[in-house]
Fold this sequence. Notes:
Blueprint: E1 2-8, E2 11-16, E3 26-36, H1 38-45, E4 60-67, E5 79-82, E6 85-86, H2 92-95, E7 106-107, E8 119-123, E9 127-129, H3 135-138, H4 141-153, E10 161-165, H5 169-180, E11 184-189, H6 192-202, E12 206-209, H7 214-221, E13 227-232, H8 237-243, E14 247-255, H9 267-272, E15 276-279, H10 285-296, H11 302-305, E16 306-311, H12 315-323, E17 331-335
Parallel strand pairs: 10-11, 10-13, 11-12, 13-14, 14-15, 16-17
Antiparallel strand pairs: 1-2, 3-4, 3-8, 3-17, 4-5, 5-9, 6-7
Helix pairs in contact: 4-5, 4-10
Amino acid sequence: MRALICDEPGKLSLIERDVPRPAAGEVLVRIRRVGICGTDFHIFQGKHPFLEYPRVMGHELSGTVEDANGSARLSAGETVYIVPYLSCGHCVACRRGVTNACQSISVLGVHRDGGMSEFICVPEQNVVPAGTASLDEAAMIEFLAIGAHGVKRGAITASDRVLVVGSGPIGMSAIIFAKARGADVTVMDTRADRLAFTVDQLAADRTLLADETAEAEAGRITGGDFFDVVIDATGNAGAMQRGFGLVAHAGRYILVSVVRQDITFSDPEFHKREMTLLASRNAQADDFAEVVAQMGAGRVPTRALNTHKGALADAPRLMSEWLRPEAGVIKAILEL
């Protein structure tokens, strides 16, 4: 089978490997679609904090069951999506059901080889029937679930004024699921084209350009209150630190972003506001189910989100092209 491997930052190679055989409790999946994530771009650029090279990337995956290997829940030929977070099932987080925070979590395409290959073996419990979702839609479920999880962590309701900072795919997902809960949503970014997309396609209520006037404009928008909930999806330490100043008194700050370096904030301001600071890591089973439900209800504009497609064999060239801001990529999908 063919697989695409990142040998080192900036270098991708198409290689041949043997088709894997599923062990007990595993399912063999024929990969048909791979969504390209910011994580994949970070790996390609050498910016990911939790990765060793070489690595087969790819964790936004859909395909068909090639060998159900005795599963009573799955059948050969069935369209499925893959939950790429492999948890131990035994640590303190897993015992509490918070498997996304497993102490020894292994994420496909990051900690172990992922799905930029024609076949992959995955634990049976991580393979989920896609229902009515198409292969393209099923490959987008994972990144959407991350935004849904951040919204859930923020306990967002229809009474909240929400600021989503960063209008990449994860930020867009947070917008979709905050709006699904009836919240008033403002989006902040440096890119005017992305901001326009969030209003036109995702029903964001308003936008805020991330320039030197942003704090003053945020105060004006909210009558001096600032935002009940701020969700950071920038992957930028400076933006993450800046976000503390945009949270209302008694508000919640959700960090979906993860960066290599430390971030700092003003402790007096943090206490004065009695702010709640929350990390949001990956997603849980109910977040995936929420995405599927909202897709079925027509609240996720998957066609608008999927701006680019390409073949696995062309990925070494396409990855560099898709990195350019002028390419206008929101969600790119590789077809196998």
